[in-house]
Amino acid sequence: MKKTITIAHSPDADDIFMYMAIQFGWIGNDFTYKNTALDIQTLNDLALKNEFDVTAISFALYPLITSEYALLRTAVSFGEGYGPKLIKKKDTHLKRNFKVALSGANTTNALIFRMKYPEAKIVYKNFLEIENAVLNGEVDAGILIHESILEFDDTLCVETELWDIWLEFAKESLPLPLGGMALRRSLPISDAIKIERDLTNAVKIADSNRHILAPMLMERNLIRVNEEKLETYLNLYANKNSICMNETQLKAVDTLFKLGYDYKFYDKIIHAKDYLIPSEYEKFRNS
């Protein structure tokens, strides 16, 4: 009997797109994969409880779970000239202590926001509720993430792009680390290597066959946007740069971790490469 591996991801289009090659049976024969879709902050909270074998996380969460989870190289989402948006009603001015809705305490957007706006009053909401919270006056502003950045009510405007804040703090043009994947350390290393390979191949196949996969997702009502917006969104967050983190992306993750330490969100500095799965183990074992 195959071992069952639990995988958790968010319900937004890029995570679903990158995972579904496994769900449709296009990849992976060693394990039975069982998936769960939850909003990102719920995933972050459950990662703190070591709930799933493999889980999507905000990169900003990872320094808090290093003892239980390794960092995967694949199924990653970075912003490059784009990303979450801080929105407000048009013709309004935000005070220093404005009230803002964020999608979760351990999200990357929350970390960057709190560095820039330390006096803001924060409330946390499911990302699907944030636009309405601004519209009905419950909060003065909110950060939109996922597909919400593509279109929002025309009475709202962008106060600032998180991308611009990131560049301000990073001091150089690095991609903005948003979403990553983590794998439970208690899994045997040989299994971990195979799982990462399966996920990497799934993202690669999804990217190469998006003209087939995207309509399948639309037909099954798995996506919250129309076909045109889906294509735009996947071009942003589920693309060739999602397949395997490159050196520039790893440097960006390290920069995020260093900023988190400098602003006292973490108690130590970590480097992403030290927490990746040692895929070279398999070559040494078989040599």
Defining traits:
D-Maltodextrin-Binding Protein, domain 2, alpha/beta, single chain, 6-stranded mixed β-sheet, 2 domains
Describe the structure.
The longest helix has 20 residues. The chain is α/β, with parallel strands linked by helices and about 290 residues long. The model has no long low-confidence stretch (mean pLDDT about 85). The strands form two sheets. Strands 1, 2, 3, 4, 5 and 11 form a six-stranded mixed β-sheet that branches. A five-stranded mixed β-sheet has the order 8-7-9-6-10. It is about 40% helix and about 20% strand. It has two domains: about 190 residues, 3-Layer(aba) Sandwich (D-Maltodextrin-Binding Protein, domain 2); about 90 residues, Periplasmic binding protein-like II (D-Maltodextrin-Binding Protein, domain 2).
* Fraction in beta strands: 15-25%
Shape: globular
Number of strands: 11
Please bin the fraction of helical residues.
25-40%
Low-pLDDT runs of 5+ residues are none
Helix and strand composition category: alpha/beta
* Assigned CATH architecture of the largest domain: 3-Layer(aba) Sandwich
Task: Give me the Rg, rounded.
Answer: 19 Å
* Structural domain count: 2
Biggest pleated sheet: 6 strands, mixed
What do we call the CATH homologous superfamily of the largest domain?
Periplasmic binding protein-like II
CATH third-tier fold name of the largest domain: D-Maltodextrin-Binding Protein, domain 2
Question: What is the helix/strand order?
Answer: EHEHEEEEEHEHEEHEHHHHH
Overall mean pLDDT stands at 86
CATH class identity of the largest domain:
Alpha Beta
Oligomerization state: single chain
Number of helical regions: 10
Distance from N terminus to C terminus (CA atoms, Å) equals: 28 Å
